[in-house]
Amino acid sequence: MAKAQRLQTECNKVIDLLIKTGVFRGLKTVLHYMDVVSVPLCRKPFAPVDEKYLPELKALAQELLEEKA
């Protein structure tokens, strides 16, 4: 049960970050940092991710890459 709660807490942090950045914009940026897509920008009407969130998104991408390894 404790592990499930810990995982849910981690998931909630990711969801909160993506909601703050815009889900599509945030996901595309994370995928860019993971070298899955070459361009981190979404097409119009989506604006770029606010630069203040880039360090958090980069850290998330790094965590995901470490889990994958």
Automatic annotation (TrEMBL):
Gene3D superfamilies: Aldolase class I. Its EC number is 4.1.3.3. It comes from the Bacteria. Keywords: Lyase. GO terms for biological process: N-acetylneuraminate catabolic process. GO terms for molecular function: N-acetylneuraminate lyase activity. One of its GO terms (cellular component) is cytosol. It is an enzyme of class 4 (lyase). This is N-acetylneuraminate lyase. The gene is nanA_2.
